[in-house]
Amino acid sequence: MNVLVIGSGGREDALGKKISESRLSPSLFFLPGNGGTGRYGTNIPGSVMDITGVIAACREHSIDYVVVAPDDPLAAGMVDALRGAGIPAFGPERMAARIESSKSFAKDLMRKYSIPTASYAVFTDSLSAIEYVSAQNYPVVIKADGLALGKGVIIAESREEAEAAIRSMMDDEAFGDAGRKIVIEEFLTGPEVTVLSFTDGKTIVPMISSMDHKRAHDKDTGPNTGGMGVIAPNPFFTDEIAAECMERIFLPTIRAMEKEGCPFLGCLYFGLMLTPDGPKVIEYNSRFGDPEAEAILPLLDSDILQIMQSVTEGRLSDADIKWKKLSSCCVVAASGGYPGKYGKGKAIEIGDTGDSAVYIAGAEEKDGTLFTSGGRVLSVVSLSDTLEGAVDKAYKAMESIHFDGMFYRKDIGKRALEALNGV
Ligand code: AMP
Ligand code: GLY
Do 295 and 339 sit in the same domain of this protein? Predict the structure, then answer.
C-alpha cells in the first residue's frame, strides 16, 4: 500500500514515523517532506497548495491513500479534489475545514448550537469595529477571520491597542485577506487544554489531552508562536471535565457539522479554556496540532493507518483505539529570532538522545548532514511513567543537540507539574 503524507513540519515527521509502524506495511511518500521524513520514505518535491501537481504525483507513485496534514490545503479543497480523482484521503473536505479557516463560521456555529465559547461580534468594516470596542471591557481579543499562521490573534489591553489592531488587520491588511473580516471576543481566563480527536462525522474519539506552550519564551512571555512545546496528558483535564466536554462540546460540534451539511471527517482539534464558568472553545483546528501531534502520537498504542482508514470509510465506531499509560513531553528547538526573522543553513549536531525521539521540522538533509531551514527546527519527545520523568528526559536529550542560534523554552511542563504537585 502506497501512502502519501502532505506537509513538511515536525507533525508530518511524527505522522510518518507512526504510519511507518502500521501492520499494513505501507510504502511512504512525503510531499514535500523535510530532512527527517526521508528516514521512513521518499520525499517528493512540490507545493502543498498545488492540487493538480499533488494528483499527478499520486498517479505517478500509485498512491492508495493520502494524509493531508496542514490547514491551507485542507481549506483549499485538497481532500475534495483527491476524492474526486478516486484517491481516498484523511482530512476534512473544504466546507468542513471552514471550522478552522473561518473563525466567524466557527463562532456562528457555536452560537447556533449553544456550544460554550467567548461572546463575540463579527465585523467587515473598521469603523463599526472601532465603535464596538469603545464600549467593551479590557482586555478584549481581536482575531483575523482567516488563516494567519497562528499570529492573527491580538489581546488588546486598552482601547488604543484595540484600535491599532483593528486598523492594522482591516485597513493595512497585515494578514492579507485573512483580516478583511474580524472577530472581536470576550477575554477568557483559565488553563488551556488541547484535545485532538478522530471523527468520521458521526463517532468522535478524543485522543489524550495535552497542553501547548504558545509563547516564544519562558514564563509565557514573548510573541505567540506555532507552539514551543507540549505535555500530555494535561493534568487540568480531569475525567469529570472530559465527560462534560464530550456532552457539551465534542458531540454537539460533530452533530452541528452534520446538520449544516458539512460532516467533519479527520482530526478535529479542540482548543479549550477551562474558565470559572466551565470549559469553553477558544478555537477549532481542522487537523493535527503541531507540536501536539509530536507529543501525542507516540502514546498511541494502536495502528494509526487503520484508524485513519476507519475514519475515511465512516466506520470509526468499530475501531480499537488504545493509549499507553505514560506521560509525554515535547520540547521544540527553534532558530534564534523565531517567530520573527531568523537565519538558515546552520549545521545541526544530534548526539545520543537515548530512547527519546527527535522529530525534524525546519531542516534539510544534505549529504548526511542536517541544516536548519525554518523557524521551528526540531523537537525532542520523551515518554515516561510520570510527567516529571518525561520532562527531565526531554531536557537531558536536548543537551546533546546543537546548532548556531538554537533556543528552546526551559519551562515546558512547569505549570502542569505545579498543578500536579498542588502548587
Ligand atoms: P487562537 O489562535 O485562537 O488559538 O489564539 C491564540 C491564543 O490566544 C490562544 O491559545 C489563547 O491563549 C489566546 N486567546 C484566544 N482567544 C482568547 C480569548 N477569548 N480569551 C483569552 N485568550 C484567548
Ligand atoms: N500548536 C497549535 C496548532 O497547531 O495550531
Answer: no
